[in-house]
Amino acid sequence: MNPKKIIKQEIQGWKTWEKVWLIIAVFSVFILSLYSNNNMISIIAAITGIISVICSGKGKLSGFGFGVINAIVYAYIAYNTRYYGEMLLNLFYYLPLQFYGFYIWSQHINPQTKEVIKTSMNKQNRLIVLIIAIVTTIIYGVILSNFGDSYPFLDSFCSVLSVITMILAIKRFMEQWILWIGVNSSRILLWILASLNNINNIAILLMSIVYLINSIIMFIKWKNEIDLLD
Fold first, then answer.
1. What is the pLDDT of residues 66-120, one digit of tens each?
2. CA distances (Å), 181 to each of 17, 26, 187, in order?
3. In the 8-state DSSP scheme, what is residue 159?
4. What is the reported pTM?
5. Cα dist. 32→21, 27, 69, 78, 210 in Å?
6. What are the Cα distances from residue 33, in Å, to 38, 158, 181, 211, 225?
7. From residue 34, how far is each of 41, 44, 188, 205, 212 by CA, in Å?
């Protein structure tokens, strides 16, 4: 795809409330992170992560570009916090899938809205996803506990759900946002626990809170758009 065409496509179709949400989310996290004396690495991770999820929620390809930066920086932060599940997830899963996701989404762009075309799962596939999530979380939690993970099963739940959710995201399923709500709620708890253990990373905690709010907003947006097509 032509780079100029991609840039033009990315800046088209933004509604006023979407622009306002992006600006408020980025600006508030940036200011509060500075006020909390967080280091620049954490702030970069927070800002790129926020831009990535909002652009992805909008159905824009640029979400994957910012996702590349976020995956690398967040993996470094997670490693230093001994959240090994989060570190492995970002470095060896999120990072390569940003490129794959970009390619898949670029093949399914709505020529009118300049956004990715949204789809939905059937009830049977939803049940299969639920069973896989429960079983895999237990198995991975046991593995992480043997590596000295700070909170193995919480970390496992967050990591496993993130793996599944990223697959749903690439396939453009609306249900991804339901799972993102679970992932982001767990991630908030992880970083609250880190703060209680004197690991000051308010930027990442704020990023996770914005992620949660965004996942709720985007679930409503994607569901409404799919309902209009039915």
1. 999 999 998 998 888 887 877 888 899 889 999 999 999 989 988 888 889 999 9
2. 21, 19, 10
3. H
4. 0.82
5. 16, 9, 21, 20, 13
6. 6, 23, 23, 16, 34
7. 12, 11, 19, 13, 21
> Can you read off the two tokens belonging to residue 21?
């949400």
pLDDT in tens, 183-227: 889 888 878 887 777 666 677 788 889 889 999 999 999 999 887
pLDDT in tens, 133-171: 999 999 988 998 888 777 788 888 888 888 899 899 999
**What are residue 32's DSSP bridge partners?**
none
